[in-house]
Amino acid sequence: MPPPLPSSRSDCAQVQVTRLRAGALEPGAEPDYVALETPVALEFNGVSHATMLATPADLEDFAVGFSLSEGIIGGIGDVRGIDLLPQPDGIVVQVEISTACEVRLRSRRRAMAGRTGCGLCGVETLPEVLRPVAPVANPAPVSFQAVLAAMRDIRARQALHDITGATHAAGWAGAEGTVALVREDVGRHNALDKLVGALARQGVRAGDGILAVSSRASFEMVQKTAAAGVRVLAAVSAPTSLAIRLANDANVTLLGFLRGDDATLYSHPERIIT
């Protein structure tokens, strides 16, 4: 039987399950824990913009990170306030942004209905998918040992995954590999948005460090990394072709299959020193 959950946890729930072991049903039900997955609607200055399925924790971070990654705001100073409004069927996150950002958002309006693991659902035009991202300016080298240390430390900090086995994690480490922040979510894009938002809200110079994710490296993950100004993205699994293309264009060093002491470099290998 799993230990009781701390009362402070709002990201998972207890359910009753029936086990099969060695192909046979065990008698009776027992408790287990699952990650919460909740519709989260983002509103900017009172206008609905996106609805995602996400784990209902660190939603202020999520709102800021999503806004930065999507180019809705230029920096944390463009956010005037964030309110969370629980509803019977989900949570509405109301974000108040500057007038200039609101005008820019209205000029490139899009409707977006997200589902778990989806980062581009509802984008109306191809240019919106491939919107330009400024190349990362930091050319400084990064130690491969630091990247390895960051990934190991992130895995050790996946508290929600340890309880439920159902979440992705995104973490940020300094250039020496020491992890400062980790965020988890049922969606890998959401986890990275939460992390980007947390970095911005805490005033961390994200560009000086390393991002590592417990997932594959899709195009959107590289796009969010570049938007945050981070020069290295390390992933446990494989990248996609479009992710590699963007990483090359955006001056992001992209590592995949980072497992044990091994990895595959897909872009800008000159930045990694061994």
From TrEMBL:
Organism: Achromobacter agilis
Catalytic-site annotation from UniProt: C118 (cysteine persulfide intermediate)
BP GO terms, sorted: Mo-molybdopterin cofactor biosynthetic process
Keyword Transferase tagged: yes
Described purpose of this protein according to its UniProt entry: Required for formate dehydrogenase (FDH) activity. Acts as a sulfur carrier protein that transfers sulfur from IscS to the molybdenum cofactor prior to its insertion into FDH.
GO molecular function: sulfur carrier activity; sulfurtransferase activity
UniProt-recorded name of the protein: Sulfur carrier protein FdhD
Keyword Cytoplasm among record annotations: yes
Subcellular location: Cytoplasm
Main location: cytoplasm
PANTHER family: FORMATE DEHYDROGENASE, SULFUR CARRIER PROTEIN FDHD
InterPro entries xref list: Cytidine_deaminase-like, FdhD
GO cellular component, one term: cytoplasm
Family in the record: Belongs to the FdhD family.
Keywords from the UniProt entry: Cytoplasm, Molybdenum cofactor biosynthesis, Transferase
NCBIfam families: fdhD_narQ
